Task: inverse folding
């Protein structure tokens, strides 16, 4: 596995919903500059793990280390403060607002001088930084940042949501099913954007069902099954069949729960 | 994609512009234009029925009649932007005006103070509504409907046995009975146009200096010219009658302040965000309940202001002040003029435009001496059509390629 202290490192994370053990003693780590694909069947515990990291749904057990230091994440604010950004599957954009307004929602920039005392928003500065941000991410498909987000394509919306998550200058970005609702070329755009994030030195975690996407974008693959981490692969040394086998458990026979690590 | 844009700009520009306009109309974006067409049709119709309709005297009356409801509607816009509705604005206006009248007439409270107390009372009502809705998650229309009934009862209580309080206080009656001499009217018109043009040019220059895209100068001039013509025409008309009414200046000032608040400030941005997607706004760290409470406070305060203007125009407050169809008209006006019932889309100006549309229909039917049965049926039908158009354009927007 990777070097001494990964950027974000979880150990022994467990979470139960009543009698349903959604996560049992899961370890997880992501390093700066890598894309980790978190895969697994429906109900494997992927979203539960992400939510624990994002601070929206706390785990029962487990320790979190960030930059090698032990940390506590007990609210979304904690995660944000640490530099962990989450792009939720439902995106959470306001369709009636334009791209600039969505990017800066909740962190609007005030104008200076007299206008500041009148709480006037500095649209010019916000638009300039929005353009710069999108350019730095090589998002070229958005023609007009004053267009309401509701009239953008799915891929463009996803790009806005991802760009938005970067405004707080996070060091880890979690994406839950970012390509689930997209067509071929839009998926391409978003995967490219995800790769850009990692190339900029961020740690990126992508949940996806689509193995093609996994092989297109990920450096490492972590497989969850029935709440346990059952396999870890380096994309370069693995076939689709291996990953599918780990996801379905075919390799071990149904019900097997021996964790197997392949590094 | 960019190639397409460039060709649109050059060769088939007229056809493209028409197609663009058609698309905007279909999706409700060119709402203002549509409303102007609607007003033109209504005015032409009634002018043919009764040549007195477009006389300076009648148009001035139309403004005076609609000032109160336009003021209430400006407040309602805040709530509509949230995607909610406040059914208590009529009752709040009647109750607050009643308190003001009783304070002035029976308790000899100075009229300016009494008006301020009425406004503060309005703010309190809004605070109550906002608190109940955000704290106990009671649907807005339920709590404001129930509150409405309570306020009607309080109004009867305050007004006492006779049920009517006549007003002769010069400050209060002066609000709707003061007219500026022609010269002041023209100065106001010139100032209004100069300020609009100046602000647009300033904004344009700032964007250019920042290296951002700016729209064509032509459309800026065209827009200013259109609103300039409307302002000049209005002043020309009122100057032939009694002059520019003070109350028109008040209503425009309130709309301007609301437009500034909703379109330029962070509060306004958050209002639109909550109306568009409340969950997204919450996850963005916006204190959505605070924003909602402030919106209700502003709405009820403006309702109280509308009540004061209505009392001023009537020289009295009585048991039916704020009652009957006032609340419906105050909500319908902005919706007719393009503010969405579903939240996140609209503007303060639709309050004025809507009051003109609905007021024109009511005023015209009065001139024709139609029976109340016909008046109710026609007004109701207009509202049904307006709400249907709203819903259809909303569906079209939703059905856009995703
Ligand atoms: N809020 C919840 N309440 C009860 N059970 C839940 C809840 N969230 C998830 N679960 C259960 O936990 C398990 C893991 O779910 P989840 O993390 O959503 O899986 P995945 O995202 O991999 O499809 C499932 O059995 C699911 O039913
Ligand atoms: Mg999931």
Result:
């Amino acid at each position: 596995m990777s070097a001494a202290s990964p950027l974000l490192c979880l150990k022994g994370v467990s979470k139960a919903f009543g009698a349903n053990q959604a996560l049992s003693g899961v370890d997880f780590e992501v390093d700066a500059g890598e894309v980790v694909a978190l895969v697994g069947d429906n109900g494997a515990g992927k979203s539960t793990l992400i939510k624990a990291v994002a601070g929206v749904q706390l785990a029962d057990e487990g320790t979190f280390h960030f930059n090698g230091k032990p940390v506590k994440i007990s609210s979304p604010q904690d995660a944000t403060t640490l530099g962990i950004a989450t792009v939720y599957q439902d995106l959470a954009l306001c369709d009636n607002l334009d791209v600039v307004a969505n990017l800066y929602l909740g962190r609007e920039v005030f104008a200076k001088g007299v206008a500041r005392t009148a709480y006037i928003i500095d649209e010019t500065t916000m638009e300039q930084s929005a353009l710069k941000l999108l350019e730095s991410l090589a998002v070229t498909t958005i023609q007009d940042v004053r267009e309401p987000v509701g009239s953008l394509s799915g891929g463009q919306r996803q790009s806005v949501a991802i760009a938005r998550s970067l405004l707080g200058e996070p060091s880890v970005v979690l994406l839950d099913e970012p390509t689930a609702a997209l067509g071929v070329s839009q998926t391409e755009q978003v995967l490219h954007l995800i790769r850009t994030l990692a190339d900029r030195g961020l740690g990126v975690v992508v949940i996806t069902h689509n193995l093609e996407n996994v092989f297109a974008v990920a450096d490492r693959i972590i497989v969850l099954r029935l709440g346990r981490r059952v396999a870890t692969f380096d994309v370069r040394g693995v076939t689709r069949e291996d990953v599918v086998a780990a996801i379905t458990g075919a390799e071990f026979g149904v019900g097997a729960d021996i964790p197997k690590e392949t590094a | 994609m960019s190639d397409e844009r460039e060709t649109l700009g050059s060769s088939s520009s007229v056809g493209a512009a028409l197609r663009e306009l058609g698309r905007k109309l279909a999706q409700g974006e060119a709402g203002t234009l549509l409303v102007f067409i609607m007003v033109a049709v209504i005015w032409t119709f009634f002018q043919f029925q009764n040549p007195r309709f477009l006389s300076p005297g009648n148009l001035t009356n139309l403004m005076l009649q609609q000032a109160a409801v336009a003021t209430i509607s400006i407040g309602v816009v805040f709530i509509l932007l949230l995607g909610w509705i406040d059914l208590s604005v009529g009752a709040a206006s009647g109750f607050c005006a009643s308190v003001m009248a009783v304070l002035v007439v029976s308790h000899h409270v100075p009229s300016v103070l009494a008006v301020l107390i009425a406004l503060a009372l309005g703010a309190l009502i809004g605070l109550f509504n906002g608190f109940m809705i955000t704290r106990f998650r009671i649907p807005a229309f339920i709590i404001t409907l129930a509150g409405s009934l309570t306020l009607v009862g309080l109004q009867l209580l305050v007004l006492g046995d006779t049920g009517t309080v006549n007003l002769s206080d010069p400050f209060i009656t002066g609000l709707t009975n003061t007219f500026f001499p022609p010269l002041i009217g023209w100065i106001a018109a010139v100032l209004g146009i100069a300020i609009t043009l100046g602000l647009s040019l300033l904004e344009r220059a700032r964007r250019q200096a920042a290296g951002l895209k700016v729209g064509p100068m032509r459309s800026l001039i065209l827009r200013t010219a259109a609103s300039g013509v409307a302002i000049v025409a209005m002043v020309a008309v009122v100057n032939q009658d009694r002059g520019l009414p003070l109350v028109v200046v008040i209503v425009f000032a309130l709309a301007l302040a609301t437009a500034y608040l909703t379109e330029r400030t962070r509060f306004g941005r958050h209002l639109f965000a909550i109306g568009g997607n409340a969950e997204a706004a919450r996850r963005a760290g916006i204190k959505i309940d605070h924003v909602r409470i402030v919106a209700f406070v502003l709405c009820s305060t403006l309702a109280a202001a509308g009540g004061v203007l209505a009392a001023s125009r009537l020289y009295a407050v009585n048991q039916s002040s704020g009652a009957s169809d006032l609340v419906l008209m105050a909500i319908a006006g902005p919706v007719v003029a393009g503010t969405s019932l579903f939240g996140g889309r609209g503007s303060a100006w639709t309050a004025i435009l809507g009051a003109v549309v609905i007021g024109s229909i009511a005023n015209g039917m009065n001139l024709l001496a139609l029976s109340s049965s016909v008046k109710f049926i026609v007004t109701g039908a207009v509202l049904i059509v307006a709400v249907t158009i709203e819903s259809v354009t909303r569906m079209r927007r939703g059905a856009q390629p995703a």
Summary: The domain at 8-96+171-252 of chain A is CATH 3.40.50.300 (Rossmann fold). Confidence is low (pLDDT under 50) at residues 253-263 of chain A. Chain A is about 30% helix and 25% strand.
